[in-house]
Design a protein that fits this description.
The complex is a heterodimer of chains A (about 450) and B (about 250). By secondary structure, chain A is an alpha+beta fold. Chain A is built from twelve helices and 27 strands. Among the domains of chain A are: about 40 residues; about 110 residues, no CATH class; about 100 residues, no CATH class. Chain A has a seven-stranded mixed β-sheet. In chain A, helix 1 packs antiparallel against helix 2, helix 5 packs across helix 6 and helix 5 packs antiparallel against helix 11. The radius of gyration of chain A is 25 Å and the shape is globular. The relative contact order of chain A is 0.12. Chain B has nine helices and nine strands. Chain B is of the alpha+beta class and about 250 residues long. In chain B, the strands form two sheets. Chain B has a four-stranded antiparallel β-sheet with strand order 3-4-2-5, sandwiched between helices. Chain B folds into three domains: about 50 residues, no CATH class; about 80 residues, Sporulation related repeat (Alpha-Beta Plaits, 2-Layer Sandwich); about 70 residues, Alpha-Beta Plaits (2-Layer Sandwich), CATH 3.30.70.1070. In chain B, a hairpin with a 2-residue loop joins strand 7 and strand 8. Classes of the chains: A alpha+beta (about 450), B alpha+beta (about 250). The interface between A and B is large, with 70 and 51 residues.
Amino acid sequence: MMNDLCIDMAMNRSPKSFRAGFRKRAVLFRWFLFLLAGKMVLGCASSVPSAMETAGKEGEPNIRVCLVENLAAATLGFEGAYILELEEARYQLDKSIGTLNASFRGTDLILKNDRRYYELSAPQTVVFKPSASGDRFIFNDIPYAGELWFQVEEGGVTVVNKLPVETYLLGVVPFEIPTNQHEYQEAIYAQAIAARTYAIYRLQNPINSRYDIYSDVQDQVYQGMLKKAPLAEDAITATRGIILANSSRVDKIFFHSTCGGVVEATPDTLTAASAGSGTFAYDLSDNDYNCKVSPYYRWVEVRTLETILWNLQKEFRLDSLLVRDWLETGCKLDIQIAKRRQSGRIEEMVMRVEDQLFPVSGFRIRRVLADQTGKVLPSNFFFFTESPGSWEKLYLIGAGAGHGEGMCQWGAIGLALKGNSYKSILGFYYPNLSMVKFY
Amino acid sequence: MQRHLRFSIRILLFLALWGGWSTPAYSQMPPDLKQFLESRSFPELINTYKRDRVSLLTEGKRAKIIAAQPYTVEKGYRCQAFAGTQQENSQRVAEQLRALQLDSVYVIYENSLYKVQIGNFDNRRDAEILLDKLRYSKVQGVWIVEADVHRPKSIEEQQAFQQQQLEEQQFEEQPGYYYAIQVFATNDQLKAAQLKETLAGDLDQPVEAVNQASSWKVLVGKFNDRSGAEEYLKKLKREKFADAWITQVPSP
């Protein structure tokens, strides 16, 4: 277990000490605190994130979420007052300025509408700070809390949202698990802890020096304050600071929408012993599959040869004229499963059009079998058959949504509906981890 | 093997009855198929029925266009009266030939040249007869070329093709519209997007925010028949949307 006292002492910095006018003394004081904290941290627990910046409230850290990499165009508005400090002036931005259009031209970030015009040259980081905790900025029609950073570099602009972890979770939990039924509450608690654990892992293992975590399925889906979900808010508040960890470190934990009845075994999750096989486990309790309540428990999808060819064009950057030629003059597409996991999930697949081979694996399998709107296949857990009515169609019969590792979110809901607490849900999916109060 | 065959027939029957929707929603899956798939563990289904290889084929759009014509295309002979880069000239020559009461006069673009060709002949001898007639009519500079010629399809062939088209159309048939349930309308795009996001996580039907007649509407579900929409509407009315109603939406 971690030493809570040490963590609190290391993380608690008094924000009051950073007032203007005392800046010099404050900087010295900050260094003193930093050295003191570092010494104490090294002295008490190796798992404490020494370089993590805190929001100042009971040691709660801030997290930097990447909203967009290589910004091309976006819209930006404000609700409440945001402060922008530039070399030449200090600006206050609120609802009255309307919506700004953001674009990157040459080496400059342009923010403009009929009332305002800002031209911000590379390299610099432009920070919009909220005046009060309830202030929001609206980026591409989604409201966000916390600070907005434009990291302007010659190669492009990265848009980052910096905010306290607990506030960040308000934009994660409702998008990771359904939050509309009181009966789901225990599963929502479990999700809040799992999402917080993932965030803390990312703080300790950031993506790069500019931001800690992505805002999409590459990490976990984050949609700012778009959705107000009281059950999620309750769960986040009630589990504040609690994460899953083993005795010495915070591991990267996984969760996914629906396992379809079969969870892949990993060191921290359902053990192979419980499955009676080497690498996967059945997500069963009371002799019933837990995620049977999921809309993705079983599914059937249809794909046309044309859709698959255009997906291949996108994935392998093929000349579109080549694909047009195949479709004009006719072609044959062979799909061969090269490797399945023991559970049945497909790991590798080879596609062949005429003389060209296209090996695909992992998440890419779901992308090359996306539908015509670009929506990826729910999972790699499927088998296929040709359409009885057309040589150009393929039926995919599958189970689950997501990669199948770690906690099954719909399985957690199923367990909650069977009367399990969030502790037993987490114990079921992560038997080798225990709950720790991180701050 | 017998078991596999039974399953394959069963699946194919289900799918044939179900139709060819490209994005089937879970609730639209035929109950028999749903029950069948849910009654077994998925690894068991895969181990029993998996196939490691599948092939899809298309004859190509060009072949489909040709197949829809009342003739087949074969190698043969034609008389050629013009070959040049100017389209206007080719059209002028073609008009002159049509004025001689000649049918089967074609203007084609091939190898960067506009060509005017006449007739569809299986053998060179028949093409030479036409060439003589043209020369007799004072049409100069005509020669015989090997070309793709049109051979009219027999009535049986045409009927067989129409029947095949009809069968494919019946199988592929998709309604020109679908039924959805409108739960909200607003002028505020953000509000519509927020509600869409909220409902998308909560409902087992697709949710979309569409812009119609200068207002944003939040629609739930994609139902091919009204009865399916009515069934779902009852559920929505019970839960939270007492004022929701069914609307018809054109398919994209």
